[in-house]
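Task: complex structure prediction.
Instruction: return structure tokens for all chains below.
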Amino acid sequence: MKRTIALAAFAAIMAVSGTAKADTLVFTSWGGTTQDAQKVAWANPFTDKTGIVIAQDGPTDYGKLKAMVEAGQVSWDVVDVEGDYAAQAGKDGLLEKLDFSVIDKSKLDPRFVTDYSVGSFYYSFVIGCNADAVKACPKTWADLFDTTKFPGKRTFYKWSAPGVIEAALLADGVPADKLYPLDLDRAFKKLDTIKSDIIWWSSGAQSQQLLASAEAPFGSLWNGRMTALAASGVKSETSWEQNITAADSLVVPKGAPNSEAAMKFIALATSAQPQADLAKTTGYAPINIDSAKLMDPATAKTLPDQQTASQVNASMAYWAENRDAIGKRWYAWQAK
Amino acid sequence: MSTYIDVASETATTSKAARPTGFGEIMPALLFVGIFFIVPVVALLLRSVFEPVAGFGNYAELLGSATYLKIFANTFIVSGLVTAISLLIGFPVAWTLAIMPTRLASLIFAVLLLSMWTNLLARTYAWMVLLQRTGLINKMLMGMGLINQPLPLVNNLTGVTIGMTYIMLPFIILPLYGVIKKIDPAILQAAALCGANRWQCLTRVLLPLAARGMVAGALMVFVMSLGYYVTPSLLGGTANMMLAELIAQFVQSLVNWGMGGAAALVLLVVTLSLYAVQLRLFGVQNTGGR
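Output:
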């Protein structure tokens, strides 16, 4: 009798743990409004369609991802990372190869597809300005680097990533198609000229706060944050002149427990409708080329993919190759 | 009453008898320290000497680069500044608390502790809002006509010092209060009766008596400041970066754990040596003052 109960209990435990494993997927992103939007646009329809529950985790932490993979104890299935990091991590063997028999890449913007990653959404570094706080707003990167014409503090992204170095070179007159390989000496020399006028932002919320409070009335921001700022009633201006694009990417860490379900999730997340839904709420552009026609034209117009006229593509391949070397120099320069 | 004595003496005897073979008793504590402190530190040490290549390259790079040395110097300067200002503000506060009616003092203690228990990030953001160009303080000063241009109070050394001092104050007021409270007011009366003026009472009677508490509190604030991350990162500029932020960059952004480990170990060694100095000077029991 005892034995029967034990066996039954054992079977029950196996069944429960068995189903639990197959029916949940852990998705990790950056938190905040972006992850909320990803939950609504991607995770909910995925659960409706497949019955697989998505557990949200975050924020994304590259140190943690590496530790998990090295220890063979991966608890994340799909992670939203920056594009340059995705390219590097793929090379370093930290990621699973994506299954393109499940994920249809024919409709995805090829700029953001590698063997190990596909774009999650794409954004631009634009020149944002609090129009109430200043007489005139800077329109070009050269303006933003010109402290005589535009005196006052300006804000830039603090971490080493595509965006600021490109902006410095463009401001210094390097043509957009001659940016790579990046002339770091020239970029840092240009950055030196405004160093004491820079306030760094390390999170999107902080960049909004700096602009709204006019602590730094202008600077280089993610376009989605400018959309949010305008929606919150701040009289803001966005200049798309030479907007610098980069994308977030979806990756699967090596050894992820539910990699099969992860591929299905990525397939859904990058399909036309969920991409359009995410773009609508975040102000970031879809990476699926069919998404634009699913959105109303007024919204679509505000997204980076409609600003291609003077768009500059940050080279993820270049950054993946040189991320560590640039990072080291970047932080040393900042601290100097 | 007699039962109490019996129990007490019995415990005393057992512990005395057990002392020579006390290893078994402290085993759980040792195990705890071993698992949660020694093992991670050793792992960190190993990483710092084996990644990316075996050897002391990380340490050489860390201690041989002007930038990193500047970050070390910043860390000590900020910590020293915060300690000095905390002491300057904390001493009069502790003194006032010690001589004030108990009921009022406990009210102020409640405020002190409440601020200590409030979320660190929230307090830091509050300072950010207060100190910025369009913040309350600048607006007030400009409204009073004291300044024409907003003062740069945040994203620089001033911001870090204000924010950190605010957070550290309870840690210096509490030990100082403990020490000052134990000083017999009669001693000061005696000094005054013997002809000492107020200044002499302070410098030759009160301060020497409170010295232990001051040093203990100051050392605690200094050591805590050395490893501070959130406040300097949010209220400071990159030009006065502190060690903890450098470690965060190595680990999170550059994913260079060798360098991160090396920097963390340097910080740990400095901290532990300061504690050793404290123990050496004051012994374990006396850190709270006597």
